[in-house]
Amino acid sequence: MIRLPVIPVRIARFIKLLQLLIIIFLILLTCSGKTPPDKTDFRRYYLNKTSAQKEVLKELFSLLAQKNNSDDENFSIVREIANQYRRLNDNYRIINFLSEWVHDHTADPYNSYYLLRIATCYLREDSKAIAALYFDLIVRNYPDLIVRGESIHLACLRQLITLVDNPGADIWYYEKLISRFPDKIDLGQAYFMLGQAEEKNGNRDSAIKAYKNFMPFYGAIIPGFPDAYAYAKQVVDFYNAEKYYNTQTAKFDRTFENLAALISVIKRTLDDGDTLQLWRYRARVNFFARSWTQVGMQDEDLGNFSISTLSSSGKIQYAADLSKGSGSNDAYLRTWGWSKLTPIWYFYFRKIYFPIDPEIHGRWEWAGIYYGERF
To answer: What is the pTM of this model?
Structure first.
């Protein structure tokens, strides 16, 4: 037995309103002495085309009216009727015809396909909100079908993540994409966007979990997020290293309210030659020391770099201004006078992204070192 779909509250309200309007319409017709249109009038509406088209549609409707058709036969006929109207670019007749069919044949196993055609018509008419309601209705309440080798549910979910701007709904859509269609989607992109949705919805631990699942997809291209990997990695790493920022001393001695304050302290420390103090200012999360061609090094991958590496026989010099490429979220300061092998170092500074703790979120820290001249 096929279970009838459960209609969402917003759809149910719409249907109730529509029923009320129909009742009012019927009352007005009765009061005016007119009778409502019967099926013949509806067929006249559907056959209101040129003579050649009318004959084709008339034949199709005649075939559809036969009582002994199988579900597959009805599907072929219904689809061809819709295709006829599609060739005429008559989206609203497709919508009306398929809506009537689904309403009158609630047990039809192909209803999810017909509803998908309706949703697509609304998209063509630029009625995106209504289309989204149908896509959502299909995924939540109708069984999946494979059409031309593709899942209807997959097609609906792909539409929904672009049409619906609701973190709560987005979470459900991405979870379904990941759990049901991992081999049909860009899994890295799905995990990252799930993390974004969880974060917007205030689900800290779930967001971290999604970003952790995203981490193996290094190099994934996320539209609208050119630094997606660095973003996710910083969030995860700060989460894992929260213990390093759990005291007032750690928060406000190692981080600074703005970039100018941080640069001033670093320059003064370099002038004093205070290697120990300079080392204390380093970030406790993802501090790195690498050449410009190296990427992806972790905190524990610093090799032989330590406080002793900061020692220099002479005075360290630094540029008066920040280097090109510095922006609102990170910056570079050119320094020189270090070892003979690599005398030039660029200090790298970044703005902290750590919304878990508003006291530190948005502050600045010294995040790493790039060896050699920047090209």
So the answer is: 0.68
